[in-house]
Amino acid sequence: MTTPLPAVRPRLGSSPKDLLFIERKIAEAYTLHQARYPWHSLKALSEQPHTPNVYEETDYEDSLTLAAYHDPVQMPLVMILEPEQDILDRFGLDEPQEALALASQKIMRDMGVLPKIGDRFDFNEWQFEIKTCKPGSWFSNAKAPCEWVFTLDKVHEDGPSS
């Protein structure tokens, strides 16, 4: 006669359903508790206004001065101005930063926004440009990030052109 084995309950993080649950909860927290800011996605290089050089290519300097952006979408973000070093250490950043922003990966995916260097958003009376973009807030041992971490620079020129 064999004795039945005790039922082992799965641990949190052992199933893709757990990751989806956590992503939904993080997105819900952003939706309910964070302010929304106009997010300007940088258009692809092929859509940028430019004057081609003799090789029919866009010069790098042109692409910086004539950058064009898509129409803004309202994005819930966590903004941290002049973050302390312990906050930077948490995200693996060694150098002082002007600002940090955090965003839900699920919300950005659902809105069809893939963040990239050069994207901008309005915060109060300032505009910030993404300097670096990296995944953050890893869920359990699934190696699946749930948030984006952005380092930002304040833009000292006019806002983006559409």
Written description of the protein model:
With 162 residues, this protein is of the alpha+beta class. The chain has a single domain (16-154), classed as Thrombin, subunit H (Beta Barrel). Helix content is 22%, strand content 30%. It contains 4 helices and 7 strands; from the N terminus they run H-E-H-E-E-H-E-H-E-E-E. Strands 2-1-5-6-7-4-3 form a 7-stranded antiparallel beta sheet. Strand 5 and strand 6 (126-139) form a beta hairpin. The chain starts with 15 loop residues before the first helix and ends in an 8-residue tail after the last strand.
Helices and strands, with pairings:
Layout: H1 16-33, E1 36-40, H2 60-65, E2 73-76, E3 78-81, H3 85-90, E4 99-104, H4 105-110, E5 120-123, E6 126-139, E7 144-154
Antiparallel strand pairs: 1-2, 1-5, 3-4, 4-7, 5-6, 6-7
Kindly report the average pLDDT value: 81
CATH architecture: Beta Barrel
Q: Name the structural class.
A: alpha+beta
Q: Whole-number radius of gyration?
A: 20 Å
Largest sheet: 7 strands, antiparallel
What level of helicity do the residues show? 10-25%
- CATH-defined topology: Thrombin, subunit H
Spatial arrangement of strands, main beta sheet: 2-1-5-6-7-4-3
* Low-confidence blocks of residues: none
Number of helices: 4
Shape: globular
How many domains would you count in the coordinates? 1
Intertermini distance: 76 Å
Number of strands: 7
How much strand content do the residues show? 25-35%
